[in-house]
């Protein structure tokens, strides 16, 4: 990898986006080169082609759920691994060019996700507004200084630190507890060591479209005491009714129960994509019932090995 690429991190820009805030949480990225991109595909292409060592991308929102563009990209681009996750509280402000009043706002520029998360406020305060989609929350604000198609923009708090705009309204988010989850993606094959507060991400397909297939896949985790913190379906795209499942598991693949569940999943599913095991953003330890502890799995394997080798019973 070229020296410049080894020092470069890609993110959805420009400066000031929620993705930028997430990348600010990565110690390894500090004092390195950051490359602003326009979309998830460009960010991941930077990683695949070696222009960047890693990319920060949004993968889930507490209000809107999974980010479908990210999930589909991770399913279709080989060789990617998630190395960490980061949480960013989400809130928005309405900004406009200096001298603009709220009564003068008729058209709002906003990223589609931000627009969805502020709809109730917009419908209450600006019931007759029009919407122009933007590629990012910050580009929505920046566009006000370049073109005059919109009167105002939905943007992150602090946007006026970067652009000469005025805040017309604050705290626009429909939910005060909204959080977006970001992941750092690279090409590394080195697994972070288990911390006891870990998450494992996979994508799996059902072998057949038949009654009980999904239940059989879920049993691979349930019978081994592995909790799923996320499961979402995405169309595979080759035929109607064909879906893949994006799954987050509580635990590390080096945990015996998770490793055993992954073996079961691989035997069951025709296509399993391992996306990585990494520390949870909230650092909350994963509670594991004693019957699913590592030593229980190790003892069971030793017991079976003794039977197969003809060892005498204790």
Automatic annotation (TrEMBL):
CDD domains found in the cross-reference section: ACT_CM-PDT, PBP2_Aa-PDT_like
GO biological process, one term: L-phenylalanine biosynthetic process
Catalysed reactions, as listed in the record: prephenate + H(+) = 3-phenylpyruvate + CO2 + H2O
Sequence ranges assigned to domain ACT in this UniProt record: 202-280
Site (Essential for prephenate dehydratase activity): 180
Pathway(s) annotated for this protein in UniProt: Amino-acid biosynthesis; L-phenylalanine biosynthesis; phenylpyruvate from prephenate: step 1/1
Matching Pfam families: PDT (PF00800)
Domain (Prephenate dehydratase): residue spans on this chain: 8-187
Recorded GO CC terms: cytoplasm
MF (Gene Ontology): prephenate dehydratase activity
Keyword annotations: Amino-acid biosynthesis, Aromatic amino acid biosynthesis, Lyase, Phenylalanine biosynthesis
Enzyme Commission number(s) of this protein: 4.2.1.51
PROSITE patterns from the UniProt entry: ACT, PREPHENATE_DEHYDR_1, PREPHENATE_DEHYDR_3
Protein name: Prephenate dehydratase
Underlying gene: pheA
């Amino acid at each position: 990898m070229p020296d410049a690429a080894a020092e470069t991190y890609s993110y959805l820009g420009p400066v000031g986006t929620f993705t930028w805030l997430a990348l600010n949480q990565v110690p390894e990225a500090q004092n390195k080169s950051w490359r602003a991109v326009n979309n998830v595909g460009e960010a991941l292409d930077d990683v695949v082609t070696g222009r960047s060592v890693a990319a920060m991308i949004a993968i889930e929102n507490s209000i809107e759920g999974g980010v479908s563009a990210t999930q589909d990209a991770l399913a279709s681009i080989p060789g990617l691994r998630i190395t960490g996750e980061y949480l960013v509280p989400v809130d928005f402000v309405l900004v406009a060019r200096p001298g603009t009043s709220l009564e003068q706002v008729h058209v709002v520029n906003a990223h589609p996700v931000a627009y969805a998360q502020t709809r109730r406020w917009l419908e209450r305060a600006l019931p007759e507004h029009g919407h122009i989609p933007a590629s990012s929350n910050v580009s929505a604000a920046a566009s006000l200084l370049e073109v005059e198609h919109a009167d105002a923009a939905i943007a992150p708090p602090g946007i006026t630190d970067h652009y000469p705009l005025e805040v017309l309204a604050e705290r626009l988010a429909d939910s005060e507890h909204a959080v977006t989850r970001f992941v750092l993606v690279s090409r590394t094959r080195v697994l972070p060591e288990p911390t006891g507060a870990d998450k494992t991400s996979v994508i799996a397909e059902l072998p057949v479209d038949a009654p009980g297939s999904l239940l059989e896949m879920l049993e691979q985790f349930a019978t081994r005491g592995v909790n799923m913190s996320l499961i979402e379906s995405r169309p595979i795209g080759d035929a109607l009714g064909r879906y893949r499942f994006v799954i987050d598991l509580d635990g590390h693949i080096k945990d015996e129960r998770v490793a055993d569940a992954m073996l079961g999943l691989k035997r069951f599913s025709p296509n399993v994509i391992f996306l990585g095991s990494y520390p949870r953003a909230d650092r909350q330890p994963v509670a594991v019932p004693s019957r699913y502890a590592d030593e229980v799995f190790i003892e069971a394997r030793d017991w079976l090995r003794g039977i197969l080798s003809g060892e005498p019973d204790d």
